[in-house]
Write a structure and sequence with these properties.
This protein has eleven helices and eight strands. By secondary structure, it is of the alpha/beta class. The chain starts with 8 loop residues before the first strand and ends in an 18-residue tail after the last helix.
């Protein structure tokens, strides 16, 4: 099975909005969606790392999914991360995404018990089976999961047993592995390193999923425009602006700083949830 979905341009990885007490605030999702669409973002990858998915209850993740489906039109694709350490919970989330009409689901590797490549394929297959009509992306993010696998081999082997396998969300700075994945033409490879977007474009990616696209989409659109017209000097300078911005966010804690940036943009996503700590006024 292959699907027509291709994620192109900038796809944001939105924050999960919360109230001051740390409870879920789904009412803020419509405003998030409006901001992204006005900025020319082409889709949303929800309940991922930026969305603090593993800090949310299953019912909360379902609520977020439902709110996003109501907030956007059919031509604004929604990819739902349904992964976690519990196969039972991930299958329930996948089935819910399928019922809600999500455009795709994604799964990162479990980060407690570390599977082998074969085990990971079986795990992903069991989740994908619960959403039989929905494209499936493997979410490769070794800095968070501690799982570093040969991603191209995953695609080559998993396609034999996961009929809905559609591609990779490649949040990995291994550009050799990225090239190997891009060489497998049947799959949609979307790049997840905002600070390396220019490198990804040079290697042939057409879609990128990132946290800073929530509040800095115009910066990256200038980068893409410069790259497409062959103005590499401007593209490099714009990428350097991105790197410097991300360094500042990292210095004070990326997740909490990026949520604070959303508040500055007029969309209050509230604090991060423990064990992360919100920024103080100082």
């Amino acid at each position: 099975m292959r699907f027509p979905l291709r994620l192109t341009g900038l796809v944001a990885a939105p924050h999960t909005p919360m109230n001051a007490d740390g409870s879920l605030n789904p009412d803020a999702i419509a405003l998030q969606a409006e901001l992204l669409q006005e900025a020319g973002v082409n889709g949303a990858f929800i309940c991922g790392t930026t969305g603090e998915s593993l800090s949310l209850a299953v019912t909360e993740r379902m609520t977020v999914m439902e709110a996003w489906e109501l907030a956007v039109d059919e031509d604004f694709p929604i990819v739902v991360h349904v992964g976690g350490n519990s196969l039972v919970e991930s299958r329930a989330l996948a089935a819910h995404a399928d019922e809600c009409g999500a455009d795709a689901i994604a799964v990162m590797a479990p980060n407690f018990f570390k599977p082998t490549l074969d085990d990971l394929i079986a795990y992903c297959g069991a989740i994908a089976e619960a959403a039989p009509d929905t494209p499936f992306y493997y979410y490769d993010i070794p800095t968070m999961t501690g799982m570093s696998i040969p991603t191209a081999r995953f695609l080559e082997q998993a396609t034999k047993s996961i009929p809905t396998l559609h591609g990779i969300k490649f949040t990995n700075n291994d550009l050799m592995s990225l090239q190997e994945c891009l060489a497998l033409k049947d799959f949609d490879i979307v790049f997840g390193y905002d600070e390396l977007l220019l490198a990804g474009l040079t290697l042939g990616v057409h879609g990128a999923v990132g946290s800073t696209y929530n509040f800095a989409a115009p910066l990256y659109q200038r980068l893409i425009d410069a790259f497409e017209r062959g103005d590499l000097a401007t593209a490099r300078q714009t990428q350097l602006q991105s790197v410097r911005m991300i360094r500042i966010l990292q210095d004070v804690g990326f997740s909490r700083a990026s949520k604070a940036m959303m508040q500055l943009m007029g969309v209050d996503c509230g604090p991060v949830r423990l064990p992360l700590r919100a920024m103080t006024e100082a």
